[in-house]
Amino acid sequence: MPMTEQATGAHHPQPRPRSGGQQSAPEQVTGAQSLIRSLEEVGAETVFGIPGGAILPAYDPLMDSKRVRHVLVRHEQGAGHAATGYAQATGRVGVCMATSGPGATNLVTPIADAHMDSVPVVAITGQVASKAIGTDAFQEADIVGITMPITKHNFLVTRAEDIPRTIAEAFHIASTGRPGPVLVDIAKDALQARTTFQWPPVQDLPGYRPVTKPHAKQIREAARLITQARRPVLYVGGGVIKAGATAELKVLAELTGAPVTTTLMALGAFPDSHPLHVGMPGMHGSVTAVTALQKADLIVALGARFDDRVTGKLDSFAPHAKVVHADIDPAEIGKNRAADVPIVGDAREVIADLVQAVQKEHSEGRTGDCTAWWKDLDRWRETYPLGYEQPTDGSLSPQQVIERIGQLAPEGTIFAAGVGQHQMWSAHYIQYERPATWLNSGGAGTMGYAVPAAMGAKAGVPDRTVWAIDGDGCFQMTNQELTTCALNNIPIKVAVINNGALGMVRQWQTLFYNQRYSNTVLHSGPDADGKQPSAGTRVPDFVKLSEAMGCHAIRCESPEDLDKVIEEANAINDRPVVIDFIVHEDAMVWPMVPAGTSNDTILAARDVRPDFGDGEDD
């Protein structure tokens, strides 16, 4: 089956731009009207943005559209992350819009974020009039040049007649092959000019032919290695979710009996509760997942890219493993780790073909035996489970807060996390059983992602509960979008894990900088002697701040109140809810592989080095 909307997520497929069939009658319109009509035809339903001079012509016909909803955000970064959250939650293309110059450059961070995590986003920016381009005109920025390294493709449109074709091509490129962000920069005079609108346009992308069907010979070789392996691991990345391949993955895992490890971007691709699931790999992965990859004799990488957070020191990663690497993007194969069997193709088609090839191997009497492997894996799981200790002073444990949010959340809840300790705890202590229920900034690690991404997700799937789990540092970067939520009936729920510090940076200062906490305290400034005081008056007061933005706000400081405030938040659905959880400041994320070291050096807890009983790790 060729690549279709399943490449962007099988949950709510994006309508495809029509490339043939009956054309509509030509209409005389402005370029701006043509843009809005094109967005309607490609199936865009929600656009997040802010108007300004260069894009203003597009906002006039947008006001009359019955098919495209515009959400007026408070900052363009919020628009970009909202488009990403919308795309990740729905599987559709997210759309954001901004004016030229600073409006466009404020989209750079969310565009880079979407690029790192392969999220289908179309960013539309206004540009100064075509004759003024290159003159340093007011609010001019070369956004095409700026974003070239961080987009899948981008366009500069200076003729009104090119707008429909460009929008159709942008959505097609963003949503097929390896998904990613596409920028469309439109000169103001192109928006103002008169033109003819006719749909569908003829698309012209001669060099764009994503390979989706895997090569049969490579599939057969991969199946042979799988059935020969004694210590195989299925290393699953976010590409499996984007391809809508989670059902096929479950069949392959149960057919082979191999352990499954799901990356930070792939949580929910395979049920956390499944007995074959051994956890998340990487710097803060489970001991079992990290060790399984290190001691594997075969790694089957599906829609994953062997990034540094998973591999640790690359030349020491999985030293005895052969590698089957399947990815839609041929540039990823062999980029970091050489592949013994490279497979280019859509994850859904690759896994479906692998299932058939492994079944054929089994029918001919060649089956793998993972019995001894599972004895090791189960011993590690029992000896080094994920866990945490409650603070001895009676304060809130951040891990417990996040765990209870997950346990008390309605079925199908979507969780969006910021970046840092709370992100890792959310990955560890919430159970993900379904795809597209976990949204986070994986590759870029963008602080401020959670609130606007949750807003975008809730706008895309309004019938689902959406929790943003944020740190007090991340929250102070983009919390203004709570105003957007309040005014646009987007009732997200926000848990601020408030330890008064930049938590992950503070953890590194504790472990590697002799507890010298340089510029990581957030809740108070230096005293008269220039020293940072300990906990005191918290500035800002998140409850007052959230109430001022139209939210219901609660503060929770006691474990006895934890369930009550979470249930209160879950019961309120007519406005955003913010809970300021005052948690213990010294909690740390474990397990941990120190940066730049081998995964063999994993610590299960502070000063606790696992002993795997094989003489290698004592």
Task: Describe the structure in your own words.
With about 625 residues, the chain is an alpha/beta fold. Helix content is about 35%, strand content about 15%. The protein is built from 23 helices and 20 strands. α1 (about 30-40) runs parallel beside α7 (about 165-175), α3 runs parallel beside α5 and α11 (about 245-255) runs parallel beside α14 (about 345-365). The longest helix has 17 residues, at about 345-365. The radius of gyration is 25 Å and the shape is globular. The N and C termini lie far apart (about 50 Å).
The spatial strand order of the largest sheet comes to 3-2-4-5-7-6
Helix percentage: 25-40%
Give the N-to-C terminal Cα separation: 50 Å
Question: What fraction of the residues are assigned to beta strands by DSSP?
Answer: 15-25%
Query: Largest sheet, described in full?
Result: 6 strands, parallel
| Bulk shape | globular
Content-based structural category = alpha/beta
Query: What's the tally of helices?
Result: 23
- The stretches of 5 or more residues where confidence is low (pLDDT under 50) are 1-20, 530-535
- Rg over C-alpha atoms, rounded to the nearest angstrom: 25 Å
Number of strands: 20
What do the pLDDT scores average to?
A: 93
